Amino acid sequence: MASAAVAVPASIEARSGAQCAVPETGLGQPELLSRATNLLDNGQDININIVMHFCCSAGEKCPRDEIAQAEIELMNSFVSSARITFSLEAVKHIDNTKCKSDINRWDDMLDLITDVRQGDASTLNIVYVQGNRGDGTKGVCSQPRLGARLSDQALAMDGCVVAMDTLPEGNDGKDPVYPAITIHEAGHWLSLDHTVGDNGNVMTSNLLEKTEYSFNEVQLKQMRQKAVERLEQSNLVESDEPPAPRPSKPAPAAVPGDAWVWMHKK
């Protein structure tokens, strides 16, 4: 398994808005799609189950369960044209010592996902934490490449961590400043890279306030193909083996093997 961790460059940290930084594969979307030769996408409706974990320490106000469903409906508004549906499988309220860590502490985020995740390769786990409010790093997610099968060790660390103030009503009861964060991270979970030169695309590396975002047709096709891959692997469950060692320095993941670019920051 190839692994990679990415530190946010100072130039990105200094910008306003919500940012994301990850090493690129060097392959364009059409080339990535051409490598996926064994996928069975016949245009069927695709359903992805989501488990949302609200990370709230004792005494902290936690979002209502209804907020989770509101976020699901927002996510679906971005992908309905591709016949992809996200469904809320469960809402979990957790209190973990790693919940107070900054999202930039990627080792802690890996531990957090490993501690709480549930389901199989087709289940998207999202942990919402109360830190990282305002501008800056807003999320982190696993990003298996298109055509890469998840090993059981990679699956144990599969999921996203997102700042809680991006949820509906998460901005002190008001609409969030950056409502597209969760669907952006879900795009990475379904293998998408960042876009360049299209500031209205969900996968831009710098999301801004009061901006409408959407996926393009190529991205939606790629998301469908990765979703099919994940559904085909739905019988893959975590083993009792310890997680693979985490890299000590950034390294781009190989393609199309069991690639794993985890530190996807927003």
Automatic annotation (TrEMBL):
Residues 236-258 are annotated as: Disordered. Gene3D superfamilies: Collagenase (Catalytic Domain). SUPFAM superfamilies: Metalloproteases ('zincins'), catalytic domain (SSF55486). It comes from the Eukaryota. InterPro entries: MetalloPept_cat_dom_sf. GO terms for molecular function: metallopeptidase activity. This is Metalloprotease 1. It comes from Cordyceps javanica.
